[in-house]
Amino acid sequence: MSQLFESLRRGRQSRGAIAPPRTAQGDAVLATLGYVPPRRGRGQRSRRAYGLLAAGALGAVVVGWNLTHRETRPIPVAPPPLAGSSGAAAAPPQSVPAAAAPARPIPPPVAIQTPAASAPAAVAAPPRPSLPPPAVQTPRVSAPSSPAASARPEAAGAARQPAALTAPTPLLSAPRAATRPASDLDLALYYHRLGDFENALQHYRALLSVNELDAQAHNNLGLLYQDRNLLDESAHELQRALVIEPRNAGTHNNYGVTLLKQGRPDEAMVEFGAALKLSPRSVDARINMALAQRDTGQPGLAAETLLGALAVEPRNAAAHYNLAQVYDRTDQAARAVEHYRSFLAYAGAEYTSRAAAARARIGELTRQP
Question: Residue 193 class from Cβ within 10 Å (0-12 exposed, 13-18 middle, 19+ buried)?
């Protein structure tokens, strides 16, 4: 039994690096059991042969698979170099097998022609809405009511020139049914210029019932009351016009005239000053400022203000008339006569009654010793 176990042990260690020594007795025992021990050197050679055969078979399989799937393998193609690009030269393209279909050349991008920009068609600007006519030209105060001397032309009843009204239609000398203006504004101005107080008042109120914030209507209504010597109502309407449109030089001047007629020359000077600040070349505001200065006992300052008005408008008849009165009251007869004559030279038809009084006063002054 010991020899049997020794043979089995040698068989288990036959794959080791050092084979145990073989004995004749051990081989005989193994032979009786039906086991034929391998010959020396033969096992290693057979294992090597089996390995080489397996490697060859595997290589044959790999080569056959490559040959079968060669045409379906994608062929990398290097991108073409950019035209005009700088830097290193592009790598040569890889060789393509004969079996592969040649790559189609990529056509260059089609240049998109930009249409020539045609000049834009001239677009007519929308017509500007016509601005409303100016409210009313400022009235000129030529001679406020004062104790009238026999030589002084016109008393308090005609102390102020008629208010010059502007309207979108020409002034009509007489009512004409076919050409009478249609809107409330036109009708109000139409009757105002004709001296028809009731009809003018009706149409001004119709304007304000539609738009209470119509500064023009308030201003003109204030002048309408001023013409009728309804000074409190005139001041109320002109104040409302100034609240709506505080930077209207004409309304400041008109309000100053109402204050001057109310016997409040100091307050009137404030309004005339505001009008001159907004419109420095306003001759009407200068004339009215001079009258307020005269009423506050400053005849010299009034004369300077009137000379300033004549520097702006040398042919202004009202400025010449008021300056002649200032000189007449301060006993400067020669200067008074000079300006009375200038007044007669430039006076229009609206000064007919004053012209007669001025001629009479010139005769009195020239006959004095």
Answer: middle
Closest CA to 218 of 202, 197, 194, 242: 242
Round the CA-based radius of gyration of the chain to a whole number and report it.
62
Report which of 328, 322, 340, 324 is spatially closest to residue 368, judged by C-alpha positions.
Answer: 328
Alpha helix stretches (DSSP H) within the chain: 2-12, 24-32, 42-68, 184-194, 197-210, 215-227, 231-244, 249-261, 265-278, 283-295, 299-312, 317-329, 333-346, 352-367
**Identity (one letter) of the amino acid at 104?**
R
Q: How far apart are CA 110 and CA 124, in angstroms?
A: 40
Spatial separation of the C-alpha atoms in residues 265 and 259, rounded to whole Å: 7
Interatomic CA distance for residues 172 and 170, integer angstroms:
6
Distance from C-alpha of 369 to C-alpha of 365, rounded to nearest angstrom: 9
Residue 86's Cβ-side half-sphere holds a number of Cα atoms within 13 Å equal to 0
Enter the pTM of the model: 0.54
Strand partners, 160: 141
For residue 83, the surrounding DSSP H or E stretch is none
54, amino acid identity: A
Cα–Cα dist 212/240, whole Å? 10
What CA–CA distance (Å, rounded) separates 157 from 103?
Answer: 113
Buried-state track 26-46, b at ≥16 Cβ within 10 A, e below 16? beebbeeeeeeeeeeeeeeee
pLDDT tens digits, residue range 20-74? Answer: 556 677 667 666 666 555 555 455 566 777 777 787 778 777 777 666 665 545 5
Cα–Cα distance, 122 to 114 (Å, whole number): 23
- Residues 191-236 have pLDDT tens digits of 999 999 999 999 999 999 999 999 999 999 999 999 999 999 999 9
Residue labelled with tokens 């004969």: 98
Q: Which helix (H) or strand (E) holds 15?
A: none
